[in-house]
Amino acid sequence: MTESDNHPSAIEQLTILGAGAWGTALAAISRRAGQRVTLWGRDAEILADIKHVQKNPRFLPDIELPAGIETTTDPWQACKSTQAVLVVIPSRSLRQVCQTFAPHLPTGIPIVLCCKGIEQGSGLLMSEVAQQELPNHPIGALSGPTFATEAARGYPTAATIALPFSEQDRRYPANSDASRLARALSNDGFRPYVSDDLVGVEIGGAVKNVIAIACGIMTGAGFAENTRAVLITRGLEEMKRLAQALGGRRETLSGLSGMGDLTLTCSSQTSRNMSLGFQLGQGRSRVDCFDGRDVVVEGEVNAVSVTDLARQLGVEMPICETVNAVLHGDAPLKESFVKLWNRPLKSESQSLPISLE
Ligand SMILES: NC(=O)c1ccc[n+]([C@@H]2O[C@H](COP(=O)([O-])OP(=O)(O)OC[C@H]3O[C@@H](n4cnc5c(N)ncnc54)[C@H](O)[C@@H]3O)[C@@H](O)[C@H]2O)c1
Ligand SMILES: O=P(O)(O)OC[C@H](O)CO
């Protein structure tokens, strides 16, 4: 082991793919952490505003961004001297964006996925999709309770960065890609924690959006705090079961990317998922809520992929099943959720598997 093996170079240059709300917020966080940042997006007009007037009026109106964020629409330009890439586009576009960028990425640099979802059809985690398309890169995830509007303003926020640890990382954890990325993003308003449980971290992010839709529906339908607390607590149990079935650790779901993000998203209509559920619960029609909407509501598409994956693995996820049935089937809204209360009684703990019927 040489001195430089012990102290791999710090990350000083980052590329962010996706100039929506969270991509722009992460560019601001990275700049405040002292990084040289290139933000790649598709819309030249938005990028020009970010670079020249420090604003993203389309996705983060009224928020002052730090100066010095470089922008481009050119994948090669975005990647030419980068040391790490954060991917911040909707989950349904991940495979295509990885394919576009594969020829331009410097060999071996870490790729951190900041989108929350499971691929429809394949049931693959975002990291599995990226691994297929970018087999020569370490793939990780950044996830946690992070409303873009607050993080972009510099309000104190924390998240988890997960990358699988190699044998070498276990001996020198501070040198791992996760640790280097955490140092690269850390600033007065943003505190990244590290984890080696990529599956646990990704499942938290994908499932919490579906549970938030359930909370929104029940709140919109006129129920209140008791109901929300039940959905959060039992929703957390659903996340833990799915993570465990995929080889993740239940304890990870008690952290920022699980309980933290679930609580945030289920508690506020700043959440697009909670807000969609709320409107449905208040009686707005599905067509009305879905048509013409151009913001990402990951829980809507991921209700299908989460439910399909749970069925495949034989994991019981009744709240997610119900969200899927009301969003994508004909199930009546309020009655379907009330039915959750009429299921056979049972023990609360997974380690005491008794039915009381
Ligand atoms: N907004 C938040 O508070 C927040 C926080 C944490 C995580 N996330 C996650 O980050 C991901 C992105 O969310 P967002 O809030 O930034 O969404 P957004 O709707 O604000 O922006 C999405 C961006 O992706 C771009 N995009 C869409 N499809 C693309 C494609 N095929 N190729 C290139 N660019 C494409 C859009 O042009 C847009 O710039 C989601 O998975 C979301 O769950 C969001
Ligand atoms: O607005 P939402 O519901 O997509 O939630 C945004 C983030 O995922 C919160 O951590």
Please summarize what this structure is:
This is Glycerol-3-phosphate dehydrogenase [NAD(P)+]. The protein has 357 residues and is α/β, with parallel strands linked by helices.
Structural class based on helices, strands and sheet pairing = alpha/beta
The CATH architecture of the largest domain can be given as 3-Layer(aba) Sandwich
Number of structural units classed as domains? 2
One letter per element, helices H and strands E, the order comes to: HEHEHEHEHEHEHEHHEHHHHHHHH
Q: Which of globular, elongated, flat, extended, rod-shaped describes the shape?
A: globular
Q: Taking Cα atoms only, what radius of gyration do you get, to the nearest Å?
A: 20 Å
Notes on the protein architecture:
The structure is a single chain. This protein is α/β, with parallel strands linked by helices and 357 residues long. The protein has two domains: 13-196, 3-Layer(aba) Sandwich (Rossmann fold), CATH 3.40.50; 200-342, N-(1-d-carboxylethyl)-l-norvaline Dehydrogenase, domain 2, CATH 1.10.1040. It contains 17 helices and eight strands. Strands 3-2-1-4-5-6-7-8 form an eight-stranded mixed sheet, sandwiched between helices. Strand 1 (13-17), helix 2 and strand 2 form a beta-alpha-beta unit. Helix 5 (94-101) runs parallel beside helix 6, helix 10 (198-220) packs across helix 15 and helix 11 packs antiparallel against helix 12 (256-267). The chain is globular. The chain starts with a helix and ends in an 18-residue tail after the last helix. The protein binds nicotinamide-adenine-dinucleotide and SN-glycerol-3-phosphate (G3P). The site of nicotinamide-adenine-dinucleotide has 26 residues, from helix 2 and helix 5.
